[in-house]
Amino acid sequence: MTLSLQMLHPLYGAEIAGIDLRDEFSDAQMAEIVAALEEYAVAVVRHATPLTDIEHIAFSRRLGPIEDTPVLTMKGIDPFKLRVPHHEIVDQSNLDDTGRIYAEDDRRLAFKRANRLWHTDISFAPDRATFSLLSAHALPDEPPPTEFADMRAAWDALPENMKRRIEGLQAEHSYWYSRVAGGGPPPTEDDIRSRPPARHPLVHVRAGRKALYLASHAYAIDGWPEDEARDLLDELRAFATRPEFVYAHDWRVGDVLIWDNLATMH
Predict the structure, then answer these.
(1) How is 20-86 classified by DSSP, letter by letter?
(2) 6-15, 71-80, 145-154, 206-215: range with lowest mean pLDDT
């Protein structure tokens, strides 16, 4: 199989044409798809009809183990009481498990709003996410785009003195830090125990290229004073999301968007 690829952005991103993610791919074909995902970091595969949840999960399994731990756990809330009846699918909507819109004072909604900040999925866990998939089943009349920032291109463009300054640093990532930064309430002690912070290199190598590893979850740097660490992280996030590094995806029903969390923010 030879993939048909069309660039989405001058630096990264590709539309993969001529395949349907419902197909039965051989191991060799999957290796070719994964190689394209690693090279381009963001990819869209368009379909005439949306994938079903089962089809979405089946293809995801070909990319590796699926995160099946609830992202948000809070005292008094059953994390396995789901609106979408598949624990492999993370439901980031504004609807509760009954399909009703969350009340404005619901802590779950307040925490979900932090997803509007630039982030990379599951960086707050020791076992980080690699690929994420988002499938368009229905769209509003004027669907807003989903934006991505290429963290490899951002690293490449950094001044050499900044590269020397940050390479080798370890950053701490907390789910609860980003929830508060996004306008949510302070977490309880039970909340914090349910999702303790994780530590990751600020610069790492992904598929042979150096990349920044940032997110709204990143809030501290080992050995640095708190204010200096947050100033640096804010500076790097602002640099990495400059317009020349950003791709905005305009959705069509049937699109499946796949991105590499180790090479991008969204």
Answers:
(1) -TTS---HHHHHHHHHHHHHHSEEEE--SSPPPHHHHHHHHHHHSPPP-S-S---TT--TT--SSS-
(2) 71-80
Which structure tokens are listed for 47? 């379909």
Q: What confidence score (pLDDT) does residue 78 get?
A: 58
Q: How far apart are CA 4 and CA 22, in angstroms?
A: 17
Pairing, β 42-45 against β 256-260: antiparallel
Q: Angle between the 53-63 and 27-40 helix axes, to the nearest 10 degrees?
A: 80
pLDDT band of 72, cuts 50, 70, 90: low
- pLDDT score recorded for residue 109: 73
Question: In sequence order, what DSSP letters do the residues of 123-190 get, joined into one string?
Answer: TTSSS---EEEEE-S---SSPPPEEEEEHHHHHHHS-HHHHHHHTT-EEEE-HHHHHHHTTPPPPPHH
Measured distance CA(205)–CA(263) in Å, rounded: 9
